[in-house]
Amino acid sequence: MNRRLLWLLALNLFLFFLISWGVMTNRTFLTAMDEWGMNAKADPAEQTTIQIARFFSIATEYKICLTTGFIISFLFIYLNKYRISFFILLGAACTKLISMGLKNSFDRERPPGPSFVSVHGEAFPSAHMIYAVFLTGIIYILISIYFKGKRQEIFMLGGFLVVGMVGWSRVHLGTHYLSDVLGGFFIGVVWLLVLYLLSQKKYSNDVPRGDS
Predict the structure, then answer these.
(1) Is residue 146 part of a domain?
(2) Would 206 be classed as within a structural domain?
């Protein structure tokens, strides 16, 4: 396995646990960060930015995540990459289970005041961020097969931009605290890396033989 990816997995897992600990214990650093993040919440008069934020929220709903996952998994079947196809299907199906399980465990209330879109369930972590990370990740994996070098880096930068806009949209619409968004991002990266590393793991078919 790629050691850099393992270190990245460990780092994101640590950061998720750090944010989770802050949520459970109401740490000062988390409260201050969330209060600062609330400055990005939309004013009802800001209809242009509200519509932009709604677009990014709708584009990363679970049904979009699941549908895109199915489509890309079939593309990998066409490319004879069956293991990657299987783990993409598994990942797409389980993103909602992961988000629901974590939300129910932490049972964190949404930010006070009205939101500009309908919301369901608890706040932490942001399910939209988990979906956004998964979506951009599997699209990047597909694109990386055909593009190398600087083009690949451009696509990666574009993916980070999209994920950032999704995170901003959830805070701007009043549905999440900043820490909810960060928690969703970190656990989304963890889930994506776990799936990718499992899809790349080599299994030896060699059977040890005794001395004759």
Answers:
(1) yes
(2) no
Number of domains in the chain: 1
Distance between CA atoms of residues 116 and 146, nearest Å = 39
CA-CA distances (angstroms) from residue 84 to 80, 90, 182, 196, 197?
A: 9, 10, 27, 7, 10
Mean pLDDT of 106-123: 85
Give a yes or no: residue 207 inside a domain. no
Amino acid at 52: I
Nearest alpha-carbon partner for 127 in 64, 37, 80, 75:
64
* Block residue for tokens 């608890």: 122
Is 212 a domain residue?
no
131 Cβ partners below 8 Å, 6+ apart? Answer: 60, 61, 62, 64, 65, 95, 99, 188
CB neighbour class for 13 (10 Å; exposed up to 12, middle 13-18, buried from 19): middle
**Which range marks the domain in which residue 104 is found?**
3-200
Identify the pLDDT of residue 206: 41
Average pLDDT, the chain: 87
